């Protein structure tokens, strides 16, 4: 499964978001319904010019060591996956996937 981590390295998920790890399972993220995810306040409520700009979404899967609760961050500001995993004793991920999403301009729409 080592080749599964290559896109994560090329996409800089490993390095920017996660430490290097060896995936031990495959992960597929799918939705049975249409989903819309927006961040209407990016970068801030007073000037949200990036609300529908280029975004990347990273899904990370950890294996639970036992039944455990995780402590949510006090704020979404400056969220750090590495710190969150360490603070909640999650260990290394067992899988991760990511994708980029960008709003299409009116000229490119069908």
From TrEMBL:
This is TFL1-like protein. It comes from Ficus carica. It comes from the Eukaryota. InterPro entries: PEBP-like_sf, PEBP_euk. GO terms for biological process: negative regulation of flower development; vegetative to reproductive phase transition of meristem. GO terms for cellular component: cytoplasm; nucleus. Gene3D superfamilies: PEBP-like (3.90.280.10).
């Amino acid at each position: 499964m080592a080749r599964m981590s290559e896109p994560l390295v090329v996409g800089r998920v490993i390095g920017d978001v996660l430490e290097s790890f060896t995936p031990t399972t495959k992960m597929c993220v799918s939705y049975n319904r249409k989903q819309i995810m927006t961040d209407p306040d990016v970068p801030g409520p007073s000037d949200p010019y990036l609300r529908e700009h280029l975004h990347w979404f990273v899904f990370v899967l950890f294996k639970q060591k036992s039944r455990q609760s995780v402590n949510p961050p006090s704020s979404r500001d400056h969220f750090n996956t590495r710190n969150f995993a360490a603070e909640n004793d999650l260990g290394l991920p067992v899988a991760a996937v990511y994708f980029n999403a960008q709003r299409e301009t009116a000229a490119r729409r069908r």
